[in-house]
Design brief:
The structure is a single chain. The protein has about 180 residues and is an alpha+beta fold. It contains five helices and eight strands, in the order αβββαβββαββαα. It has helices at about 1-10, 50, 100-110, 140-145, 170-175, and strands at about 15-20, 25, 35-40, 60-65, 80-85, 90-95, 120-125, 130. The strands form two sheets. Strands 1-2-3-5-6 form a five-stranded mixed beta sheet. The chain has a three-stranded antiparallel beta sheet with strand order 4-7-8, with no helix packed on it.
């Protein structure tokens, strides 16, 4: 997944340096040294019987992440969650600003979570919606994730990560606007 991430950065015309903990510093040489930092977090292996739908919802891809922020103490501007989409034979990326991610985590798990171990399970549905299904019970799945006449209960809530999927232009725009 790291290779696909770096390929995409080059394709977008971005330069990067990377530390051993997958902490990237990105810049656009055309923008006079502006930069942004991204932490790449790759999915762990997934057991579909454990992490998949218990109610027959069609899930195209599942990402399972367990991580802590790097010990360096630096917080990235963006967290990038990478997971394989075996149906489309490609890697999907959720690119979410760190602040937004921590706000979502705090709503889900009140209290300080920034230095604790974080677990996240994402489902990419066949209609291209992405949801945080960490610790979702079968009843919760039925209520929030099953698609009804007017969509899903989870739509436009803090568990909906759809707007962050493969949003590379938002990342490039952030680098192009940032101040050195």
């Amino acid at each position: 997944m790291k290779i696909e991430f770096e390929k995409k950065l080059v394709e977008l015309g971005l330069s990067y340096t990377v530390k051993p903990d997958d902490f990237y510093t990105l810049s656009n040489p055309k923008c006079g040294g502006n930069h942004s930092s991204v932490l790449l977090i790759s999915s762990l292996p997934v057991n579909k019987q454990v992490h998949g739908s218990k109610n027959g919802n069609v899930v195209q891809a599942i990402g399972r992440f367990i991580f802590k922020l790097p010990l360096s103490g630096l917080e990235p501007d963006v967290l990038s969650f990478a997971f394989p989409n075996t149906v489309k034979t490609r890697v999907e990326f959720i690119l979410i600003p760190s602040q937004e991610f921590w706000i979502r985590q705090a709503k889900k798990n009140p209290g300080s979570v920034r230095r604790k171990r974080v677990e996240l399970v994402l489902w990419l549905m066949e209609d291209k919606f992405v949801y945080d299904t960490t610790s979702l019970s079968p009843e919760g799945e039925w209520y929030y994730i099953s698609k009804g006449r007017n969509g899903r209960m989870a739509d436009r809530t803090k568990v909906d990560y759809t707007n962050f999927m493969n949003c590379w232009q938002r990342l490039v725009g952030k680098i192009n606007r940032s101040q050195p």
